[in-house]
Description:
Strand content: 35-45%
Distance between the termini: 24 Å
Strand order of the largest sheet: 1-2-3-4
Number of strands: 16
Number of helices: 0
Helix content: under 10%
Largest sheet: 4 strands, antiparallel
Shape: globular
Amino acid sequence: ADVSDSQIAFVYAGDVWVVPRQGGVAQRLSTPPGEESFPRFSPDGRLVAFSGNYDGNTDVYVMPVAGGLPRRLTHHPAEERMLDWFPDGESVLLASMRASGKSRFNQLYRAPVAGGLATLLPVPYGEFGTLSPDGGTLAYMPLSRDFGTWKRYRGGMAPDIWLFDLDELTSRRLTEHAA
Length: 179
């Protein structure tokens, strides 16, 4: 789910829905056959980007909040997960294992909304992340158990949150906890 100045986007029954922040009737935004997930509003609130699986592979799509056809942003055979928008509204942040060398780990990419190839961010691995309002700092998790079933897990795959300075190319661990 995501929240803009005026709306909330969420997934129900495999489709993206939007509802006014103050409440009211939800409108289904996406209707193509296939599953959508991880909707995120653009900084100006006019677009929604999301992960969609329409042809057997999950890619990132974008569409107007007012409705319309989704436009595909990524075209790689590896699955991509929509994470966030860059503050300029011209690119999105996504996770993909397309070049990680390990099928268990994703890396973070910047994909232009206007079209073109996604570029790898200088972070070794990344599963989930979000950008600071100025776009200079990335808060991310290099590992994730979000899709695992390990209840009360406290081992080496327990995720911590890291901060990465995209200008200085430095990182630091923000959390350190066994869970």
